[in-house]
Amino acid sequence: MSNNRSGNFIGGLIIGATIGAFTGLLTAPRTGRETRKLLKKSADALPDLAEDLSTSAQIQADRISENALRSWDDTLGRLREALFAGIDASMQENQALKQERNQNTSNSLPEHINN
Question: What is the domain extent for residue 72?
Fold first, then answer.
């Protein structure tokens, strides 16, 4: 969850910086030629910025995927343990019932058969 928040923060920071820089360029007291040069430089930097954002998003997605896989493995392990414990308890209960039936059967037989 914190990985997602840091990814959102980084993305927001980069977008905010870009918007701030663009707004600053448009409101700066420069000549049109100087402003166009700065805008061209900024536009030339956008592909790199987009690549950085893409890389950051991919890193965040990989982290989230790894965490989800780890969580799934943990859950699967606990499920297996619970399943085996249930099977073991069922087998023990089955054996106890069989022993109880055998005792009840031997107690209900006539005495000359028991001896």
Answer: 17-105
Phi, psi of 43 (to 5 degrees): -65, -35
CA separation for the pair 49, 97 (Å, rounded) = 71
Q: Length of the chain, please?
A: 115
| Alpha-carbon span 70 to 74, nearest angstrom | 6
Q: Looking at residues 60-76, what average pLDDT do you find? A: 90
pLDDT at 36 over 50: yes
Q: How many domains does the chain have?
A: 1
CB 21 within 8 A of CB 42: yes
Determine the Cα–Cα distance for residues 15 and 11; give it in Å rounded to an integer.
6
Does residue 41 form part of some domain? yes
More confident residue, 95 or 52: 95
Q: How many other C-beta atoms are found inside a 10 Å radius of the C-beta of residue 36? A: 12
Confidence band for 4, pLDDT divided at 50, 70 and 90: low
- CA 68, 69, 75, 77: dihedral to nearest 10 degrees? -160
